[in-house]
Amino acid sequence: MANDQVDMTPAKEDIKMTADDAVSSAEGQVHTAYDCMPQSLVGLSDNEREQLNKKLVRKLDYAILPIVGVLYILNYIDRQNLGAAKLQGITTDLKITTTQFATAVSILFVGYLPFQIPSNLLITKISRPGMYICVAVAIWGSISAATAAVNTYSQLLGVRVILGVVEAVFFPGAVYYLSAWYTKRELGKRFSALYIAQQVGNAFGGLFAAAVLQLNGHRGIAGWRWLFIIEGSATVFIGVICAFFMPEFPHNSRMLSPSERDLAVWRIESEAGAAEGSEEGTVLNGFIKALSDPKLLLMIFCNMLSQAQGSIANYFPTLVDSLGYNSTISLLLTAPPYILAGIVYYCLMFYSDRKNTVYIPIVTLICIAIVMYIIPLTTTNVGARYFSIMILPFASVGPQLLLYKTINLHLARPVSKRAVASALVNAIGGTSNIWASYLYYQGPHFYAAFGTLMGCAVLFIATITFYRWLVLRDNKFMDSGDEQLIAKAMKRGVTEEMIQLNWRYEMY
Fold first, then answer.
1. Three-state DSSP class for residue 37
2. Long-range contacts from 486-494, C-beta under 8 angstroms, 24+ separation
3. For residue 411, which of 156, 170, 233, 421 is within the disulfide window of CB 3.0 to 4.6 Å?
4. Where are the alpha helices (DSSP H) in 430-446?
5. How far is Cα 440 from Cα 311, in angstroms, rounded to an integer?
6. Are 108 and 79 in contact (CB under 8 A)?
7. Rounded CA gap, 157 and 128, in Å?
8. pLDDT tens, position by position, for the chain (508 residues)?
9. Which domain holds residue 351?
């Protein structure tokens, strides 16, 4: 705990939400089931604690979300700008084939995927995670800008591998970082904020690329080189600025008052049933616990299937270009689908938080995606194809938001296990981006791509349904009162503290 003086008496009733709370009906609620409330909070009335909690959540939203959101926009722009560069002539200038370009896209993940796990283990041991993330931002911005200097295919591959290594810090680190600040009923919309930022990055990236294209030939520099120079330089500058403002962890945050800091730590601990700021346990122990949990293996497989569908983002400008417009119009047409996706993500997570559900939204989105895959397979009508392009970004990528929400709630303890789980799901699941990059050929129908993604979607539904059956069965075991059945549930990641707190798997 962040505060050594605690009240060992049973906690009082939960603090209830008021009608004027602008977020979901359950968000901001402080659960007092944990029996170690800090002394600084015991002396407050229920109403005073409620007001303090609302003030805290508001402060976190103002201090954390804008910074993380901006950095994620930069992360996604720098990772995806190769697709825009293709429309601006990089394949012609470097004399690379379609297959070689696919390799250049996918090889980023050779560096990106394996380094997520050690990075996420490291971030749990660093007292200034914000500084760690921002330093990585500045470094990858420099590498992205350096892409403008490549003159050969092999140089492009080398830069992309190094870029992937450094960018591995951000996404799993940001997911873990947010889970250290927000409760389970608050996480959904905060994760959606990340993905909304991603869509803003995609939309802005296309518009920005179209504008930069106008610099083609200026000072003798090709348009695609200007794209990397400008975007990379902006990333370095913003990363350095954000390093001075990004908060630490709740238990050592300097932006909070002592009572706010106690509340920030306690509300996470009371929900998870263990000390967030001082939990003991080795990194190796957390790694072993993560790998021994069958739920993690299922989440990894689900994310592999979901990431395969999300590979559309890597080739989105190519899909839009298949409609037959020139490169500038194609880049402009990439923006509306991502704007729509950002709106849908917020509504999706608002619904998920309010109803405390993820299974039905996941299955619904997958079914919508299947229909959208069929359209480009069966018609060349421009209107119908662009309609599917409008829908696919949120339908194919949306389930990932709900998967990450599941991971951080169902695989929460110990802290090192949660960090490893987030990194493993994103790292191993992300391997789909490597092989999926080779599917996008033979436009405008892209038979290999959409046929494969349809198969992944069907398998995704079957796997997530089996996961639902598994966690509901464990809930029944914990409800039974039978020690043998409870022991079976504990073999799959449930701790003794969770049992004592009457903890259950939710959202399914």
1. strand
2. 492/293, 492/294, 492/295, 493/289, 493/293, 493/295, 493/410, 493/411, 493/413, 493/417
3. 421
4. 432-436
5. 10
6. yes
7. 32
8. 334 433 433 333 343 343 333 333 334 444 444 456 777 777 778 788 888 888 888 988 888 888 988 898 888 777 778 877 887 788 888 999 888 988 888 888 888 878 887 887 788 777 788 888 999 999 999 999 999 999 999 999 999 999 989 988 888 788 778 878 888 677 767 877 777 777 777 777 777 777 887 888 788 888 889 989 998 999 999 999 998 888 877 877 778 888 888 888 888 777 654 444 445 555 666 667 777 778 888 888 999 999 898 888 777 777 888 887 877 787 788 888 888 888 888 888 888 878 888 999 999 999 999 999 999 899 888 889 899 988 988 898 889 888 878 877 777 666 666 667 777 787 788 788 788 878 887 778 889 889 999 999 999 999 999 999 988 988 888 888 888 888 887 777 777 767 776 778 888 8
9. 58-430+440-500
Q: Which amino acid is at 285?
A: N
Spatial CA neighbour of 472 closest among 459, 487, 460, 489? 489
- The answer to whether residues 180 and 250 touch, using CB atoms and an 8 Å cutoff, is yes
Ordered alpha helix ranges (H), 411-446: 415-429, 432-436
Q: Is residue 12 part of a domain?
A: no
CA distance 315 to 330: 12
43 in a structural domain: no
Distance CA 109, CA 122 (A): 20
Q: Please choose, from the candidates 349, 393, 449, 438, the residue with its C-alpha nearest in 3D space to the C-alpha of residue 205.
A: 393
How many structural domains comprise the chain? 1
Angle between helices 98-106 and 65-87 (to 10 degrees): 170
Q: What is the pTM of this model?
A: 0.68
Indicate which CATH number applies to the domain containing 237.
1.20.1250.20
How far apart (Å, rounded) are the C-alpha atoms in residues 404 and 390? Answer: 24
